[in-house]
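Worked example 4.2. Below are the chains of a multi-component assembly; read each line carefully before continuing.
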Amino acid sequence: MSDKSQNELSERNQALLKALVQQYMLDGQPVGSKNLAQAANLKVSPATIRNVMADLESLGLVSSPHTSAGRVPTNQGLRFFVDSLLTIEHINQKKINDIRDTFEAVSDTQTMVASASEMLSGLTRLAGVVMVPRSQRTALRHVEFLPLSDSRVLAILVTNEQEVHNRVITLNRQYSEAELQQVANYLNEKFSGADISTVRQSIIDEMQLARENMDNLMARAVEMAEKVFEEPAGQEDSVVMAGETNLMQFKELSDIDNLRKLFAAFNEKQEIIHLLDQCLHNEGIQIYIGDESGYQVLGDCSVVTAPYSVDNQVVGVLGVIGPTRMSYDKVIPIVDITAKVLGAALNSRG
Amino acid sequence: MSDKSQNELSERNQALLKALVQQYMLDGQPVGSKNLAQAANLKVSPATIRNVMADLESLGLVSSPHTSAGRVPTNQGLRFFVDSLLTIEHINQKKINDIRDTFEAVSDTQTMVASASEMLSGLTRLAGVVMVPRSQRTALRHVEFLPLSDSRVLAILVTNEQEVHNRVITLNRQYSEAELQQVANYLNEKFSGADISTVRQSIIDEMQLARENMDNLMARAVEMAEKVFEEPAGQEDSVVMAGETNLMQFKELSDIDNLRKLFAAFNEKQEIIHLLDQCLHNEGIQIYIGDESGYQVLGDCSVVTAPYSVDNQVVGVLGVIGPTRMSYDKVIPIVDITAKVLGAALNSRG
DNA sequence: ACTGGCACTCTTTATGTTAGAGTGCCAGTC
DNA sequence: GACTGGCACTCTAACATAAAGAGTGCCAGT
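Applying the procedure described above to all four chains together yields the following C-alpha cells:
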C-alpha cells in the first residue's frame, strides 16, 4: 500500500534507478553516487544517493562488482527498467520512409530478408536477425519438370508471387519430356492456387486411394508429387543474420573466448532459431534480458524481437541481439518499425 | 657457386631453417637455440645453432622480436620454406573418399559450394573460402514466364543441369499468359542449348536489326529477353566462407581490433573476391604469405588457393585463409584435393 | 530525512624486483 | 677452421609493493 512497501519503489527511487540505468548504458561502467547525483537532477547529496542505492541493492535491482565500484543494474533491474521506467524514443518519420524505400527497391523475399537484417544491424549497431517467412499459406502457382540425365528430374515449384523453389528428384525410371509435361499439366490443373500444405495432404490422401486403382497418369503424378512436396520447401537455413561483428566493440562481450562461442552459436543458428520460434507465438515486442533467453551462450546478451505479419497472419520474427546494456529506448522502436515495414513490403509486392 | 655465397644456404642451414619454421608453426612462439638444437636432429651445440641463426637473420629469413627471445621466421623466410623446403604431407586415401562422398550426397551447386567451404574450414581448422563457379559456358536450357500483377513478369531461367535463376522484370504493358507462352516458346526454340553469353550477344544483335523491321512476336521476345539476360544471372554474392571463427583461436590474430577489421572484410567480401579473382588466372596452388596479398587487412594472414575446373576449364577458385604460420604441409594437399574433387563433382553431376 | 565527514575497501596504475630464456662473443678444443 | 662451453648481458614475464583514486558504509549532527 504505502510507497515504502518492500516491492514498491518510491517515485524518487524509480527516478534514480532510471538515471542509473541510462548512465550505465552509455559506457557500461559502474556508476557511483556522486556521478549519479549529478545525472539525476535531484538536489540531494551523494550520501543520500548512497542510501537509496543500498536499498536498490537489497531489492536485487543493482549490484556492485566489488566493494568500491559504484553500481551496475542487475538483469532484474534492467527488466524493471524496460517494464516500468522506459520512455521509448519516438522515431523520425523520415527514417521510417528511408526504411520503407529500402524495401521497395527489392522484390524477392530472400533479398528483403537480408535487407531487413542489415537494416537492423545498421540502425542499432548490434547484430540483426531475421527469421525467414514461414512458407505456410503459400499458394502453389505452377509446377514444371525438366528431365536431367538418367532418371533424375528437376522440379521447379513456383509459389505465391515470386518464390521459386527447385529440387532434383530421382525417380525409378526415365521419363520422356512429354510424359513430364503431362504430369505437370495434371498437377497444375488439379492444384494450382491451392495452399501448399493442402497440396501435401491431398497427395497423401491420394496415395492411399492410388494403391488400389489408378490410371497411369495419376500414378506417375502422385509418385512425383510425393517427392516434390516431401518437405515444406525452403526449410533449411531459416534465419539470416547481419552485423555480428558489431558486438565486438562492446568490452563486456569482447572476451575472446566467449566471443568465439557466441559466434559459433550464430553460425550454428540452431539455438537462435529455437528462441525466435518461441517469439512467433507471442504478440508484439518481446524482450529477453541476459539469461532470460535460457541459452547459455546468450548469457550476457539481450534479445529484442518483434513478429511480422502478412495479411494479418504472423509469418516470421525479426530482432536484434546485443549486450544487455543496449539502448532499449532506441532499439525497441527500430525493431518495431522494421517488423511493420517488412510485413507491409511482403504484403504489397505482387 | 659455392654454397657459402650470399643467397645460397648450406644444406645444414636449410635444415635448420626448416626445423625452425616447423617448430614455430606448432605454437607461434619464437624458437631459441637450445630448443632448436633439440628439434633438429643435428648433433651440434646450441652455440653453433646461434651462429647459424645469426646468419639466417642477416639474410632476412628470421628475426627476433627482441634481444632475448629466440627467432621467428619472417614472411620472406616462410616464402623460402614454402618454395624450397616444404615436404607436403601425403593425404590419406580414405580421407579423399570421405570428401568425395560428401559432395556426392548433394546435387545443386549452391549446396556443393557451401559444403566445400565447410569442408575446407573443418579439415584445416582455418577459414574456408570458395568462389562460386563462373556462369560462363552455361548453356541455356529453358525459359519460362509467369505473369504477376500489373506489368510485372517472373522469368525463370534454367541453365545447364540444375541451376535455376529467376528474376522479376517489369515491362511496359501487361501481357497475357498466352502471349508470354508464345514468347517463351520462341526463345526456347531459338536459343535452347546455346551458351548464355552467346544468347546475350544474339539478343543485342537482334536489337539492332529489330529497330527497323520486326514482327510483333519478335519485338516482344527481344524486349523481354533483353531484360532477362541483362546481367549474367547470379553475379551477386559470389564467394562463400565458412569457419571464420576458427581464426579467433590464434593468439597472433586475436587482437580484438584487428579481428574486427578482418571479420568486417570477410563480410564485405569485396577484397576477398578481388584476390581470388587474380588466382583464377594462375594455374595450380597459389600461396600468398602475409602482405604478399597486397591487402592491408590480410596483413598477418596467409591465403592458399587452388582453381577448380569443370570440363578442363577453370570455373572458380577455392582455398583457406589463416595465420601466416599455418601448417602449409597439411593445408596445401587439402586445398588441392578439395579443388579437384569439387571440380569432379560439378562435372559428373547430371 | 538529509547531510558532511571519515575510515575503510578495493581497483588501477606505476614502480621495482627477480627469475628465466636467450643471445653474442670469446677463448679454447678437436 | 669448425665447433664448443662459458660467461656477461639483455629483455620479458611474473610477481610484489606502493601510491592514488574512486566509492562505499556508517555515524553524528542538523
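Take a moment to check your reading of the output against the notes. The beta strands of chain B are 62-63, 72-73, 127-131, 140-147, 152-159, 163-170, 239-242, 286-289, 301-310, 313-323. Chain B has three domains: 3-85, 93-134+237-348, 140-228.
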